[in-house]
DNA sequence: TTGTACGCGTTATCAA
DNA sequence: TTGATAACGCGTACAA
């Protein structure tokens, strides 16, 4: 077993408290004579002492660790934002423990319990659950908590992209290009972001088929494409509520005849290397850096003062289109609309 | 504060041990009369009791938690493999704590310390450090440990793609297409996978410029492309040691004249939607599912018997090319070579 | 069937 | 400048 304070105390003919004071390093260490201090330090390194953080945290009620529960770590969006949050937190002396709820309510509950019971100083959550009540039963009041990407009404500390604005700039861009009829492929209806995005599409354009809902994976995009294929010729655009769905669609487009002009693909988040794709694409780009930094900022203020009053933050998105889109964007039926270029 | 066993004992006129026995649930619970059992349970839910896992783990020396430290969670490869490992472990009753060393030796050390001192039952590591010695000083002997993606000589429990084979099938495919001269863009030289891949490229083909090393990000790919541009016309292929670098290269290709025939891009890992890209691409695809499952299997056997003797596992990769590549693959100078299709 | 008492490894309080 | 000693919250051998 790993040596403990007792071992070092015995080895060095002192007491555990002395050893603790020396090894904890703080201001207390200076109150110990240099002689014993050196003796203790020497013994510690010689025996390979490693403090038991479980015991320390049990005593101090601090862990210097933040929990982050995301809904799908396989999605590069969350991977990227996770890496930014980690870097930002480490500057403030916090470590990050990342958990993946995999868009599964049971797993979310499990990790919520695990992470809170295991001791963390703060929590960042991309929630699956939708109501403040359920949240309150899962996480102890008093624990600094910031919601990320999916706000919940009534919870003050939250950071997310402005869904209405993000969808609006996307629709504006499409409308300017003359789009009137679209097909919509969306993620799970019970996820607020997906649902809301789909609603806005449906509100702004005429649908050639009912909205297709499914897990936010490539496979759903492909399946939806196959299913909607007969009606797709009427649509000027295919609207996807996230990048995975869109990649499935784009994959499928590759399988069919590219000579007939392909529909525009409208999508949230980035499509890698889209400038080279022979399909017109327009994205609503979230400001990931801003999301990460604001989230950490909110959490840090909460960490300082758990009673701090915060307000939900909305961060605007920017539309971005590829070359193929810019070529066709002088299409018929321009619509007068204020675009937030 | 959250209620403890003492609170419930007081509330229910029993002792902590009784409460503990009931709430721990195991075989002990049946040795308690149904009457008090119900009374205790009722009080527990009424007071909203949540066991303190720090204290429990301190006592039992078990956490049912596995640590996973990856080198770059922003890379979809690690995000995906992380999600697979998480799912697989949760079937065996373990939770996963994911940490991001961000390809930074200090952070790796920090998390290694944190995660081991904080108590985990096992560890999966994508190591940055290269020598068994350094590893041994960081992680306590006796802790079940499996290396992922980057083997270290002398460490038995490790799972990785067979780098030699993966690079070989890639080179074979290129050679068959008549490639003789290439440019190589590689990740950090101190990372074994990147270094080894670059070496094999250099060994099989003639280089039009020295190998370009840099952080494994898109930006490096772009910079390398710019820098090598003058010499690129002589190269029939650009070889990248990971997908991020390749995406940077592909982005850059989009900026130049596409009418002159573009070079082949050879790369490890997947390039999304590559069938639609107007550039010939050939990838060496790692079997991520297999990697994840084997890693978990190794860890589970180690968890059962920490003294179990394991052997490093190598998993073969498969070459995959896109449409644009298949069109040009009847190029001159075919080379007789056994391809592992 | 239930309660008492101790230990897990650490920090904090109080004397000396 | 140091050392006993009591928590932190939990599980469990031992006793009743």
Name the largest protein-protein interface in this structure: A-B, 55 and 55 residues
Rounded to an integer, what's the Rg of chain A over CA atoms? 26 Å
- In whole angstroms, the N-to-C terminal distance of chain A is 62 Å
Number of helices of chain A: 13
Oligomer: homodimer
The averaged pLDDT of chain A comes out at: 92
- The shape of chain A, in one word, is elongated
Could you characterize the architecture of this molecule?
2 copies of one chain form a homodimer. Chain A is of the alpha/beta class. Chain A is built from 13 helices and 13 strands. In chain A, the strands form 2 sheets. In chain A, strands 6, 7, 8, 9, 10, 11 and 13 form a 7-stranded mixed sheet that branches. In chain A, strand 6 (181-186), helix 9 (192-204) and strand 7 form a beta-alpha-beta unit. In chain A, helix 5 (76-91) packs across helix 12 (288-304). Chain A is elongated and about 85 Å long. Residues 332-341 of chain A have low confidence and may be disordered. At the A-B interface, helix 4, helix 5, strand 2, helix 6 and helix 11 of A face helix 4, helix 5, strand 2, helix 6 and helix 11 of B. The structure holds a DNA duplex (16 and 16 nucleotides).
């Amino acid at each position: 077993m790993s040596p403990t304070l007792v071992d070092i105390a015995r080895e060095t003919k002192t007491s555990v408290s002395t050893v603790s004071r020396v090894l904890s390093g703080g201001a207390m260490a200076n109150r110990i004579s240099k002689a014993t201090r050196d003796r203790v330090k020497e013994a510690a390194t010689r025996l390979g002492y490693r403090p038991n953080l479980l015991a320390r945290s049990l005593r101090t009620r601090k862990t210097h660790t933040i929990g982050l529960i995301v809904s799908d770590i396989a999605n590069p969006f969350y991977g990227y934002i996770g890496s930014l949050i980690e870097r930002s937190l480490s500057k403030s002396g916090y470590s990050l423990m990342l958990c993946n709820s995999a868009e599964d309510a049971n797993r979310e509950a499990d990790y919520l319990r695990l992470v809170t019971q295991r001791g963390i100083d703060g929590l960042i959550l991309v929630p699956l659950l939708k109501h403040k009540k359920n949240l309150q039963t899962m996480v102890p009041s008093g624990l600094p908590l910031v919601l990320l990407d999916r706000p919940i009404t009534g919870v003050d500390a939250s950071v997310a992209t402005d869904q209405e604005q993000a969808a609006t700039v996307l629709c504006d861009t499409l409308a300017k290009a003359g789009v009137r009829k679209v097909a919509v492929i969306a993620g799970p209806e019970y996820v607020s972001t997906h649902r809301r995005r789909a609603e806005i599409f449906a509100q702004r354009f005429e649908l050639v088929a009912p909205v297709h809902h499914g897990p936010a994976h490539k496979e759903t995009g492909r399946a939806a494409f196959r299913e909607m294929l007969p009606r797709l010729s009427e649509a000027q655009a295919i609207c996807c509520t996230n990048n995975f769905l869109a990649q499935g669609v784009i994959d499928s487009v590759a399988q069919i005849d590219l000579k007939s002009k392909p529909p525009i693909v409208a999508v949230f988040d980035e499509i890698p290397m889209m400038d080279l794709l022979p399909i017109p694409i327009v994205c609503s780009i979230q400001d990931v850096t801003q999301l990460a930094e604001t989230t950490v900022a909110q959490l840090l203020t909460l960490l300082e003062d758990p009673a701090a009053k915060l307000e939900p933050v909305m961060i605007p998105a920017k539309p971005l289109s590829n070359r193929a889109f810019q070529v066709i964007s002088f299409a018929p039926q321009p619509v007068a609309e204020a675009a937030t270029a």
